[in-house]
Amino acid sequence: MTFKKTCIVVLLIGVIIGAGVRSFAQTTNVRVAFNGFGGIAPIYLGQDAGIFKKQGLNLEMIFIPGGSLSLQALIGKSLEILMTGGPPVVNAYLQGAKIKIIGGAVNLLPYTFIATAAIRNPEQLKGKKIGISRFGSNTDYVVRLALNQFALAANDVQVIQVGGSQARLVAMKSGAIQATVLSPEETAVAQKMGYGVLLDFIEKGIEFPHVNVVVRDDYLESQPQTARSFMRAYVESVRYYKTHRDEAVKKIIFFEQTSRPANGRSDL
Predict the structure, then answer these.
(1) Residues 171, 101 share a domain
(2) CATH at residue 96
(3) What is the distance of C-alpha 251 from the center of its chain?
(4) What is the pLDDT of residues 79-111, one digit of tens each?
(5) Are 214 and 89 contained in the same domain?
(6) Per-residue DSSP letter, 231
(7) Is residue 103 a contact partner of residue 212, using CB atoms and an 8 Å limit?
(8) Is residue 149 part of a domain?
(9) Which one, 148, 172, 231, 259, has the greatest CB density within 10 A?
(10) pTM
């Protein structure tokens, strides 16, 4: 090999190695919103373990109460990925939103229907106010499903928008509402406050798209590799979550004990 050819080969190797190093070092910022902590703990644990970083992703986790509100942010391109329930996604899609579900995180209905101590049976719900996050959200759907189970019509009660689970608990305490639906962790808090469970959907084991990974069509077309990397990292994070029990329990306890920031954001 001549000296000139040797120089060219060396230069090409240098370019390839340099490009590889730059590619490896480059990270993509991804804004991921969620409405509650169902299916989210593995992501935070995966962040701590460097799993998303290994896939070249730097996640900004943003809490937005209510699936309908968070979908507006996704459609308005304030987010790249949204973890939310099935009903608001279907409603938005039917109204023309160009969005897709690319993964499922929680496929059971993890809610309980709770009410104040004065309400001991469904019949006593008549004329009472029931709080949900927003119309068209998971909580809206679950409340209507509960009313059906109770053999009550929608006009037998007043369903009002209150906000996230913490806001609904505050509304319960103030007397602004008399019932709502909560996750298992939040239900434990509600029971300590003296509220009772009228219906436990968890015991029924109802299949339901509770938490889904949702993206816009245009993002999926322009950033297919980022979407794949996120799903790859999420699956690995779930595996890590299930095989590192002590760390997972600590993360769950952290979520239960830490109140959400006033601005609704939680950046890692």
Answers:
(1) no
(2) 3.40.190.10
(3) 16
(4) 999 999 998 999 999 999 999 999 999 888 889
(5) yes
(6) H
(7) yes
(8) yes
(9) 172
(10) 0.72
